Every structure is written in structure tokens, then in C-alpha cells.
Amino acid sequence: MEDKLILAIETSCDETAAAVIKNGNEIVSNIVASQIESHKRFGGVVPEIASRHHVEQVTLIIEEAMNEANITFSDLAAIAVTAGPGLVGALLIGVNAAKALAFANDLPLIGVHHIAGHIYANRLITELKFPLMALVVSGGHTELVYMKEDGSFEVIGETRDDAVGEAYDKVARTLKLPYPGGPYIDRLADVGSPTINLPRAWLEQDSYDFSFSGLKSAVINTLHNASQKGIELSNEDLAASFQESVIEVLVEKSKRAAIEFEVKQFLLAGGVAANKGLRNKLTKEFEQLGIELVIPPLNLCTDNAAMIGAAAFVKLEKQHFAGYDLNGNPGLDL
Ligand code: KG4
Ligand code: ZN
């Protein structure tokens, strides 16, 4: 079989990324330009600034990915791009770059769902075994996704309010930690003790949905009440208590879903998959269950284009191509 190369582009949030992927599972090149430094002083991603950076960066990053792969456009089988969800102004930059390149080089165009990308990041490290379950945890998403087979996605549970990463970042901001605060909370939690009583949002007994805004508010209220009484709480213990509450719910629901759907594999995906506490607890629990757990390396957990190329390969095989009317869709369904 002839090798099939895909150029993939990702600009849905604050990373401008391009990658060349061979046969859906091999990284030939993978370039990511992070904008974190530009958004840091605002305490979150500023959509207008994100779009401007993408415009400046996108052609350079694509050129770098092509150069590093040492190929020309005639070597490609398709051009793939994240079509949503994400910031609309940010998505549009990638989508328009992909459309222009596909048209100019007479190549098929493939639109990819960002979450499908996060899940398929796992295909870059191992073979996927179906049926599988994926827990997608990032700054914008918290979802349990059931996949009966390649390319089929069923969201069995999702957050009803804040995404996990969003809750981490908001709690971190309350503790006056830099943006994005997830990794800082993770580090504090590692040295603290979960001694502060915080709620767990289990929701209805059989629900796979999540809710984190109540927990986030409980942390803020606990801090506020303590400071009014002149008590100084330990940031480490507060972080450890918050993290324990988050992880307990994520892991319990993941286990229940894996058992009920009799999956062969459980995948962790998204930026929060970098969380040490979550990785450790999932590893321990799935070992006991005897279900294979796959966790991508850190650089494939956070936003990148390699994962978009991996997800696009399934569509290339099925010839599910997009037209030139492809648009950035912030509310795209999986
Ligand atoms: O997937 P991602 O790079 O971007 C989105 O698509 O959202 O995820 C970024 C999120 C941020 O909220 C960040 O705070 C969180 O992932 N994050 C973490 C850790 N590393 C990154 N959250 C908890 N613990 C970590 N170690
Ligand atoms: Zn993401």
C-alpha cells in the first residue's frame, strides 16, 4: 500500500499548529506555536488576540511542518483542518488556510472535530481496540465518549456547566496562581493533604454527566469564609482537596462507563490528561479492572495538529471530504 500523507492544521483556540501524518498513525512533523504568553496577563484566552496571532503564524507554521517533513504538496493525499468547536474567529483562520491550500493544490479537504482529534491522539501511540471509551478533559470539554468502531462517536456524558480545565483555571485564579492554573494546582495538590471537606457532584444515580461549578464555588466560599474569620488556609491542602473531589468523580464515572459498555480499551485525552493525580488514580483503578488504559504523552494531550491528522485519516479512508463551503463552527457536534 502506498503511504498516505495528510497535512493537518489546528487553530481552534490559542495554539497555531500544523503537522504531517503518515497513514494516520505516524508523526512525520508536528509544529505547535503556543500563544500562552500573550494571554497570560489577561488571565485567559482573549479571542481577538488569538485570531490575530493565528493570522500571523499560520502560513509560517504550515511551511515549517512541510519543510520538516521534507515533502511538497504533490506528496500529500489530503489537507485536514479543525472545523470546530472552538473560537469562531480562530477556527476561521485555519479553515481558510486549509481551503486555499486544498484548492491551489487540487487536494481533498477534510474537516475534523476537535474532540475527535483529542481522542485520536491515542492512535499515534497505539492501535485502537473497539469498542472503546474515551474521557476527554480539557479547558473547554469534559466528555465521556463511546466508540463502537472507527469514526463512530457517542457522547454518553458531558459537563452541564464548567469544563474540568476551566474549573482548575478558575480555582487557580482565586489562589492568585498564573494562567493556565491547572498545572500549578496539580503541583500544589501533590504536596498538600485533602483535609478540607468539599462536595462531589455525582448527579442522578445513573448519569454520566458532570458538574464542576458547584465545587469551584465551594472552594471560593471556603476561602472567603476562612479569611473573614481570620483563618489562613493552606493553598496546598485546598488544592489537594479540590483535586481529590474532581478526580474521585471523573474516575468513578469512567470505571462505571467502561464496565457497563464492556470496552476493550479506555483512552484519556485533552489537556487535563496531563494531571498527575488523575493519571495515577486512573492507572491504578484500571489495572485492578483489567481494562487496558491508554494515556498519551503530554505533548499530544494539549492542542496540536498531529491528533487532527490522525482523526482525519479515518475520513480519508472513507472519502468523507468537505466542500469549499466548509466553515468554522464553534458549536460543531461530534
Ligand atoms: O486541551 P487543552 O490544551 O486546550 C483545550 O482544548 O482546552 O487543555 C488546556 C487545559 C487548561 O485548562 C489547563 O489548565 C489544563 O488543561 N491543564 C491541567 C494540567 N495541565 C493542563 N489541568 C490540571 N492539571 C494539569 N496538570
Ligand atoms: Zn483541545
UniProtKB/TrEMBL annotation:
Its EC number is 2.3.1.234. It comes from the Bacteria. Substrate binds at V136, V137, S138, G139, G140, D169, G182, D186, N275. Fe cation binds at H114, H118, D303. Its cofactor is Fe(2+). One of its GO terms (molecular function) is tRNA N(6)-L-threonylcarbamoyladenine synthase activity. One of its GO terms (biological process) is tRNA threonylcarbamoyladenosine modification. InterPro entries: ATPase_NBD, Gcp-like_dom, KAE1/TsaD, TsaD. Binds 1 Fe(2+) ion per subunit. The keyword NAD does not apply. One of its GO terms (cellular component) is cytoplasm. Keywords: Acyltransferase, Cytoplasm, Iron, Metal-binding, Transferase, tRNA processing. It holds the Pfam family TsaD. Residues 26-309 form the Gcp-like domain. Required for the formation of a threonylcarbamoyl group on adenosine at position 37 (t(6)A37) in tRNAs that read codons beginning with adenine. Is involved in the transfer of the threonylcarbamoyl moiety of threonylcarbamoyl-AMP (TC-AMP) to the N6 group of A37, together with TsaE and TsaB. TsaD likely plays a direct catalytic role in this reaction. HAMAP family: TsaD. NCBIfam families: gcp_kae1 (TIGR00329), T6A_TsaD_YgjD (TIGR03723). PANTHER family: TRNA N6-ADENOSINE THREONYLCARBAMOYLTRANSFERASE (PTHR11735), TRNA N6-ADENOSINE THREONYLCARBAMOYLTRANSFERASE, MITOCHONDRIAL (PTHR11735:SF6). Belongs to the KAE1 / TsaD family. This is tRNA N6-adenosine threonylcarbamoyltransferase. It comes from Anaerobacillus isosaccharinicus. The gene is tsaD.
